[in-house]
Amino acid sequence: MQAFPIEKFRNLQTPFYFYDIELLRKTLQVVVLEAAKYDYHIHYAVKANKNPRILSIIREMGLGADCVSGGEIETVLNEGFSAEKVVFAGVGKTDWEINLGLEKDIFCFNVESIPELVVINHLACAKNTIARVALRINPEIDSHTHHYITTGIKDNKFGINLDQLDRVLDMLSTLSSIQLVGIHFHIGSQIMDLTPFRLLCSQVNELQQKFIQRGIFLKHINFGGGLGIDYENPDENPIPSFREYFNVFRTHFFVLNNQQIHFELGRSIVGQCGNLISKVLYVKEGSVKRFVILDAGFTELIRPAFYESYHVIENLSLEEATDVYDVVGPICESSDCFAKQRVLKKTYRGDIIAIRSAGAYGEVMASQYNCRQLPKSHFSDC
């Protein structure tokens, strides 16, 4: 079980995010070690967590950045990430964001549609520069994860559909300010069964032959991210099996000479190191249920309300007895519920509660709904 400095927590204003820096560093060490075996290039998906301390540690380990907005590009460049390691994805890039990427000479735009290609070409031409792009192709592979985080099937808004690819390739030769450097994929998030990644490799092998037949060599192949974490057993599995994950691509994708392979990992790097720490305001005896009402709500962690996602919830008290509770927040919405009928240590007002595995899509998605303050962050090493 992860050790929490409970006495320290009692003196801090809740709710707040607590990050296990040792676990983050260990996770990054494994990522870097396993990727280095095959000379894979890793770009951290900033959308998972943009906490400055977290970004600083990730940059120190030599990772690049996967950004989905101009704000994220500005953030990572201000944190010292190299522009030549920044990729810019997203289905709706605005003109100012594209211009920012061009001005900063980022490594690559992951392009998702013909209209986007036309706009990037126009803006690059106006700056008398060349935009490096990778085509984000929708491989029509179901990742069998939550439908809100599935991104690689035909009716998703993301990517260029397979039946549009010939038209895109025909058009590329007419765009003087575009340089095609590779192709990009991202089939979904929180993927635990590696089978969809094997299918992706097979699909990309076939697509590569299509490009070869057209006389196009793809310098860069970007497989995106999607590797999940064990939300149910964070102590038993604090670090995902990056070895198995990378081995899928090593085994099933046929790399050409002088070809570089890229990944965009987010949740799998930061998910387990973050915890939302909250305090019990009230224990309410309802007619049919017993409620633990926390001072944290979906303003601090929206995933359970948004995806009905599961998080381990721990009462950090020394109580031995247990009881069954619905764990809810203070927000004036019925969806402000972290868990239903959850077994916890017998809980009282003032108890400290840890909601585990909240390092990804937790703090970064916090809001000020109900005019609430954004949560602060604290770290295990300070």
Overview of the molecule:
Specifically catalyzes the decarboxylation of meso-diaminopimelate (meso-DAP) to L-lysine. It holds the Pfam family Orn_DAP_Arg_deC. The active site is at 332 (proton donor). The chain is an alpha/beta fold and 382 residues long. It folds into two domains: 6-15 and 272-379, Lyase, Ornithine Decarboxylase, Chain A, domain 1 (Beta Barrel), CATH 2.40.37; 21-271, TIM Barrel. The protein has eleven helices and 17 strands. The strands form two sheets. Strands 1, 11, 12, 13, 14, 15, 16 and 17 form an eight-stranded mixed sheet that branches. The protein has an eight-stranded parallel β-barrel with strand order 2-3-4-5-6-8-9-10, surrounded by four helices. Helix 8 (195-213) links the parallel strand 8 and strand 9. The radius of gyration is 22 Å and the shape is elongated.
* Protein structure class: alpha/beta
What overall geometry do the principal axes of the alpha carbons give? elongated
Q: Would you state the CATH class of the largest domain?
A: Alpha Beta
Rg: 22 Å
Overall number of domains: 2
Reported by name, the CATH topology of the largest domain is TIM Barrel
CATH architectural category of the largest domain: Alpha-Beta Barrel
Strand content: 15-25%
List the uncertain runs: 145-153
Name of the CATH homologous superfamily of the largest domain: Alanine racemase
Number of strands: 17
Oligomer: single chain
Q: Please provide the ordered H/E string of secondary-structure elements.
A: HEHEHEHEHEHEEHEHEHEHEEHEEEEE
What is the number of helices? 11
Relative helix content: 25-40%
Mean pLDDT: 94
* CA distance, first residue to last residue: 20 Å
Main beta sheet: 8 strands, mixed
